[in-house]
């Protein structure tokens, strides 16, 4: 199928996934952190107190998604996205009106579970349920919504915060989400089928997996290190990017350009990986999708010089884009699409916990005197081992 034929037949569903990924930006860390200093000032919180509150909200949302993600297997994606958009709009409005710490914490939890959790989950899973011959391209297009939000929303939000205040910015976010909710209620994604219908099924769905059976499955356990690696390691690198820059001698003025390179590499590699998955399959491409992060970890260990920052972040971004496509494709090939919501939600919860842990682990290592070079070597070894395990996946397939 040519790309034009793909857009004619499945473009509406891919566009729906893209839109939901874009709207999930209002519950992502990059957007919430833009008003972080104002929130801390308004509630008299220090960095540690606000960070702890945010981490608690994120972990709680990850645990909630174990259940909430599975709901997508029992309802249509339209119903699921409607609930997520309504919840996220309510959360944005609640944050703008919060008058105490309890309401602040509850608002942050709702932003994370409805935004990063449910909307992001709906975006990827709806695209991943399409047939195997087009699944990679559909997921690749849907995931472009994430970097689109990262590219356009910070500038708009900072301008609104500077001129009108942070509470107005969140009220405007609630208004945008309300408009998106109205659009979803009015339109129906083309090709949508409830997971329980025949159209929502795919090949190995004869036996319905349970969460416990998945956690015991050898294929899942072999793929788990690859699921954990990108969110955990990239969160650690990005969280301590200032420390990396100071240690490696990277000029801070190059960091903005490096992060732009990260976003561009994520977009480009996500699209290319979509084509590769459709041609070769997710199981085969899982052997290669960690290569960018492996190379950037080796660069951290052995390469110096100011312009190494550009290559480091570009290679890291390449794995970020590839990971968004490969992981749902592999899960669909291993477990089918009928229960993909529950399977992916379980993986998402594990990834959230891992991404919350690495800033702490990296922090203890740095405080103990471990060099960034040693951290890079340790991460490269882990990534090599995770990639090696993926060669076993075809033989362990259910």
From TrEMBL:
Keywords noted in UniProt: Membrane, Transmembrane, Transmembrane helix
Sections of the chain in a coiled coil: none
Major facilitator superfamily (MFS) profile domain ranges (all copies): 13-398
Gene3D superfamilies found in the cross-reference section: MFS general substrate transporter like domains (1.20.1250.20)
Keyword hit for Metal-binding: no
PROSITE patterns: MFS
Residues passing through the membrane, by range: 12-32, 52-72, 79-103, 139-162, 219-240, 252-276, 288-304, 310-331, 343-366, 372-393
Name of the protein this chain belongs to: MFS transporter
Organism: Alsobacter ponti
